[in-house]
Specification:
Number of helices: 5
Number of strands: 6
Radius of gyration: 14 Å
Distance between the termini: 42 Å
Strand content: 15-25%
Largest sheet: 4 strands, parallel
CATH architecture: 3-Layer(aba) Sandwich
CATH superfamily: Rhodanese-like domain
Number of domains: 1
Structural class: alpha/beta
Helix content: 25-40%
Length: 119
């Protein structure tokens, strides 16, 4: 049985927390939270550049305004929606797109977070 915390990426778009930290150092990019507004407002990564809700179509609507040559790091609650969003970006011609997984895993892995409710 595989240990959940030592999972390895299933493709070249999925990064573990440690891979994300390393990649962000060597290849800076935009960090996008694709969760709902409510999820985002309950806490997010401090390095988040944008929050575009994947479920209501906001994320997809933003794609035409995004630079296809930029590097993007996507996250959500568990990594599922950000994986779907990354796949959608790849299908639309974006090359440097990474699914960095779920918010809690990132927070538990040492990525700084903020709680918007305290602001």
């Amino acid at each position: 049985m595989l240990n959940f915390f030592s999972k390895t990426p299933s493709n070249d778009m999925d990064l573990t927390v440690s891979e994300f930290k390393e990649k962000l150092e060597s290849q800076p990019g935009l960090v996008i939270d694709v969760r709902t507004d409510e999820e985002y407002n309950n806490g997010n990564l401090t390095l988040t550049d944008h929050q575009y809700n994947f479920l209501d179509g906001e994320f997809e609507n933003q794609l035409d305004q995004m630079d296809k040559d930029q590097t993007y790091y996507l996250y959500c609650r568990t990594g599922n929606r950000s994986g779907q969003a990354a796949k959608l970006m790849k299908e639309r011609g974006f090359n440097n797109v990474y699914n960095v997984g779920g918010f809690e895993d990132l927070a538990n892995g040492g990525i700084a977070t903020k709680d918007n409710l305290d602001e």
